[in-house]
From TrEMBL:
<keyword id="KW-0464">Manganese</keyword>
<dbReference type="GO" id="GO:0016853">
    <property type="term" value="F:isomerase activity"/>
</dbReference>
<keyword id="KW-0413">Isomerase</keyword>
<dbReference type="Pfam" id="PF01261">
    <property type="entry name" value="AP_endonuc_2"/>
</dbReference>
<dbReference type="InterPro" id="IPR036237">
    <property type="entry name" value="Xyl_isomerase-like_sf"/>
</dbReference>
<dbReference type="InterPro" id="IPR050337">
    <property type="entry name" value="L-rhamnose_isomerase"/>
</dbReference>
<dbReference type="InterPro" id="IPR013022">
    <property type="entry name" value="Xyl_isomerase-like_TIM-brl"/>
</dbReference>
<dbReference type="GO" id="GO:0046872">
    <property type="term" value="F:metal ion binding"/>
</dbReference>
<feature type="domain" description="Xylose isomerase-like TIM barrel">
    <location>
        <begin position="100"/>
        <end position="285"/>
    </location>
</feature>
<protein>
    <submittedName>
        <fullName>Sugar isomerase</fullName>
    </submittedName>
</protein>
<keyword id="KW-0479">Metal-binding</keyword>
């Protein structure tokens, strides 16, 4: 489904007077609002190809209607999101769930929706039909060199697919680890994984990066071979300057101070970027900002401060992606909510008075430091984000527009009620 610009403009027109009042009110309080608008317009968050269908748990799956059943339809869905919010201008593919058969045609299709290809993701946590060796006991860490070779070859194949599409990074998330004490020699598993990653690293094109994603537990419940940022950092620093650590918000143990992790990884030039989601208990993959919006803001506060200290471009120098899964919501509505939550956290972080905060830190004025953060966090920045969206041709109210235009109903009409998207 494609939404015409004129249709959005008509919808926007209905809310324009209200919006203008709200925007003017907030704009008066922010000295550099133009600058903030430009940053928000430039900021794009990649949508993973596996999040466009209804997710499930190991207990069941309840697919909704009109889900995309091909890569082409997935690109169409991301295009739909992007036309509404103008902030979802990239798609991240998971191989082999979404293998581009004709890379040029897929590239052309994405270009029509103004979408870029973000990092490509390999998959050695599932066995595929016809695969010679099983990943039951790991992939890059496996004791059998045949399994490791197969997993290395798969990652190199994923790089080739990504190259054909114009991606510039490979994300490796390993489910490797052990479920019971004694199952694994930690050091040997680490060394085998490192050697395997080194083979993949050698196959990276000159302008590519490799992202090493970590996760504390699941599917292995005793040890994960890339279990935390320390282990990821060890791998990425041993691999070389093209290797970085990727932070998935749900991949930490409860109450981990993620903002501090982010700050230090950036200090060491080893932060790849993000997989955004939210969680209450573990890797819940809930809508971004639905549980802990203050934490998300604190992370963005570190990101903005750290990127500014390094002279990095907020929009392009780190990789931003949503990695969530939706059991009860319409996946597209959920992705609109997640994107909005990220933009809110980013905009609030841009409001932090960095100079005064630094002064408060120097003076050990703890109370003032907290006031500065909370004053930014408690600002309702939604009119600024809506203004940025409207300036770039999107909807003032993306979610409402999605519903008013009966987007899901239109997708069901074309695709039917019983489609199933590939993915988890
Ligand atoms: Mn992830």
């Amino acid at each position: 489904m494609q939404i015409k610009k004129e249709t959005l403009q008509e919808l926007n027109q209905q809310h324009l007077a209200d919006h203008k009042k709200q925007f003017d009110f907030i704009a008066l309080q922010i000295p550099n609002v133009e600058n903030i608008l430009q940053k928000l317009i430039a900021f794009q968050i990649a949508i993973p190809s596996w999040a466009l269908g209804t997710g499930g748990t190991r207990f069941g799956r309840f697919p909704g209607g009109g889900e995309p059943s091909s890569l082409e339809e997935k690109i169409e869905d991301v295009g739909l999101l992007h036309s509404l919010n103008q902030s979802s201008g990239a798609i991240s593919l998971h191989i082999p769930w979404d293998i581009p058969e004709d890379a040029n045609a897929i590239k052309a299709l994405a270009a029509r929706y103004n979408l870029k290809f973000d990092a490509v993701n390999s998959n050695t946590f599932q066995d595929q039909p016809g695969q010679a060796f099983s990943y039951k006991y790991g992939s890059l860490q496996h004791v059998d060199a045949n399994v490791r070779r197969q997993a290395i070859a798969h990652n190199i194949e994923v790089i080739k697919h990504g190259e054909a599409l114009g991606s510039k990074a490979l994300t490796v998330w390993l489910s490797d680890g052990s479920c019971f004490p004694g199952q694994l020699n930690f050091r040997e598993a680490f060394k085998r994984t490192l050697e395997s990653l080194q083979e993949i690293y050698k196959a990276l094109p000159a302008d590519w990066k490799i992202f090493i994603e970590y996760k504390a537990f699941e599917p292995n419940f005793y040890s994960m071979t890339v279990g935390d940022w320390g282990q990821s950092y060890l791998f990425s620093s041993k691999l070389g300057s093209k290797a970085y650590s990727l932070v998935d918000l749900g991949h930490h143990l409860p109450n981990a101070n993620i903002e501090q992790i982010v700050s230090l990884l950036m200090m060491e030039d080893k932060l790849a970027g993000f997989h955004f989601n939210d969680s209450k208990y573990g890797d819940d993959d809930l809508t971004v900002g639905s549980i802990k919006p203050y934490q998300l803001f604190l992370i963005f506060k570190e990101l903005v401060e750290g990127m500014d200290a390094k002279g990095l471009d907020h929009a392009t120098d780190l990789a931003w992606m949503i990695d969530a899964s939706h059991n009860v919501k319409d996946p597209l509505e959920d992705l609109l909510q997640s994107t909005e939550a990220i933009m809110i956290a980013y905009a609030r972080a841009l409001l932090v008075d960095a100079t005064t905060l630094q002064q408060a830190q120097q003076e050990n004025d703890v109370v003032k430091a907290q006031e500065i953060l909370q004053s930014a966090f408690l600002t309702d920045v939604r009119p600024i984000i809506a203004e940025a969206r409207m300036l770039s041709g999107g909807a003032l109210r993306p979610l409402e527009s999605f519903r008013v235009l009966n987007a899901r109903g239109e997708l069901i009409k074309v695709r039917g009620n019983k489609t199933l998207a590939t993915g988890l």
